Each structure stands twice: as C-alpha cells, then as structure tokens.
Amino acid sequence: MPSKIETIVIVDPDLASQRQLEELLRSAGYPVAVSESQGEGFRFVRDVGVDLLLLSADLSDVQCCDALAEVKGNAATAGTRVILLTQGAAAARARG
C-alpha cells in the first residue's frame, strides 16, 4: 500500500461486483466511495477529487469510452487514474 492513503471510487451498476471490490479495497486500508451510476460517480470525482476511478465497462447509461473521454477531457479530472473493469473479472482476479 502506498504511503499516502488514496481515495478510490467504484462506478459499477452490478451491486455484487461493487460490494466485492469495496470489501477488498477497504480491507487493504483504502477509503472507498461507490456509485451505481456514471453521473453520480463523476460528480464525486469532479467535486471531491479522487486518486483512482474503477469504472465498469458495462455501464448502462453511457458507453465506457465516452465515460473515459468525459473524465480525461475535463481539466479538473484529467489527472484521475482510471481502470476499466469488465463484468466479474476484477474481483475474481484480485482474490487470486
């Protein structure tokens, strides 16, 4: 874990995947915020500022490439690191 505690936002409409990732990251000591919708998640990224955005590639309200372009195209959020997740893969890989 890095010396600076980094805030992570999970944007995933799949509640089971969201909970698994949240539990895994919290157990590692990271502060985590969660959102089921792209709009709510991006408002958090823009208004609060986060270190990492875990973004589901399966968002129903926007295409993942459009979502990524929205984050990276905004001067206030362009420096936010983003990881795109496919359904179910992230938690399974993280558990080993």
UniProtKB/TrEMBL annotation:
Descriptive protein name: Response regulatory domain-containing protein
Record-annotated Response regulatory domain positions: 7-96
GO BP: phosphorelay signal transduction system
Coiled coil: none
Source species of the chain: Candidatus Acidiferrum panamense
TM regions (residue ranges): none
